[in-house]
Write a structure and sequence with these properties.
Among the domains are: 42 residues, no CATH class; 114 residues, no CATH class. The protein is of the alpha+beta class and 265 residues long. Helix content is 64%, strand content 15%.
């Protein structure tokens, strides 16, 4: 009898209360009923309870409430053990803008504080610290939190893939816009130059017309001058002719007067 008791004690030594309870219930049913119950109740383990009640950022007022369930208190106890200075990230689906982040445990802080925080990278060279806006859904609610993470250059590119893609698109749009603006400016300059050329051509035509008009006017003036000169010459010749004729006529009269004067004497 003593040996059976010692065996029973050794069998339950170092076992937690939940496992000991399950063993006692099973042994009880087997000893009295000689059969295993068909529909056993499935109990959740502590890890499952913590996973169900875990939150990335917890509300201290809810956790410290008197009517808080023990599952919530257990998850809060695990949350307090995490180091929330720098996070660890899963960057597998970075092209789809899906990045998972979680806080570090004590062992990860001790062993991996100088290692890339990506779960798929062990690089220790040229690490950079990033502060990102982590947008996640929890309890049917979308939340935002600023989180620090330390990554190597290649993982940093993965983290900033969406931002770089957005900047590349913006730069492409700006480049196309600059090209369109330059094209418009060139078209405006060409239109201005064509207008200037048309103005110059019209100005040269008007100048040529003015020159032709001035030449015609000068020619007409010259013609008029020649005509006036000819008229003057003709008038002068007429004058001289008239004077000669008048002289001839006066001489005859004088002769007649002299003749008659002689007769009367």
């Amino acid at each position: 009898m003593a040996s059976s008791k010692s065996m029973f004690r050794n069998d339950l030594r170092g076992v937690d209360a939940y496992t000991r309870h399950k063993k006692l219930i099973r042994d009880y049913t087997l000893f009295y009923n000689h059969q295993i119950p068909k529909n056993e109740v499935k109990y959740k383990t502590e890890i499952e309870i913590i996973r169900e009640n875990h939150k990335f950022i917890r509300n201290q007022d809810e956790d410290e409430a008197e009517d808080a369930p023990w599952e919530q208190r257990a998850a809060k106890k695990y949350y307090d053990k995490l180091f929330k200075e720098y996070a660890i990230g899963e960057l597998k689906y970075y092209k789809e803008s899906k990045i998972a982040l979680r806080w570090r445990t004590e062992g990860e802080v001790v062993s991996g504080q100088f290692v890339c925080a990506s779960t798929r990278c062990d690089s220790t060279h040229s690490l950079e610290s990033w502060e990102v806006n982590f947008r996640y859904a929890e309890d049917g609610e979308v939340k935002n939190e600023l989180v620090k993470i330390r990554l190597c250059p290649s993982c940093s590119d993965k983290l900033n893939y969406t931002t770089q893609k957005r900047l590349a698109k913006k730069e492409k749009k700006d480049k196309l816009k600059r090209k369109r603006d330059q094209k418009r400016e060139q078209e405006r300059d060409s239109n201005k130059s064509s207008r200037k050329r048309s103005k110059k051509s019209s100005g040269s035509k008007s100048a040529a017309e003015d020159e032709s008009q001035s030449e015609s006017e000068s020619e007409s003036e010259e013609d008029e001058g020649e005509r006036m000169g000819k008229n003057k010459e003709s008038e002068a010749s007429n004058v001289w002719k008239q004077t000669a004729e008048s002289r001839e006529e006066r001489s005859k009269e004088e002769e007649f007067e002299d003749y008659f004067a002689d007769l009367l004497q």
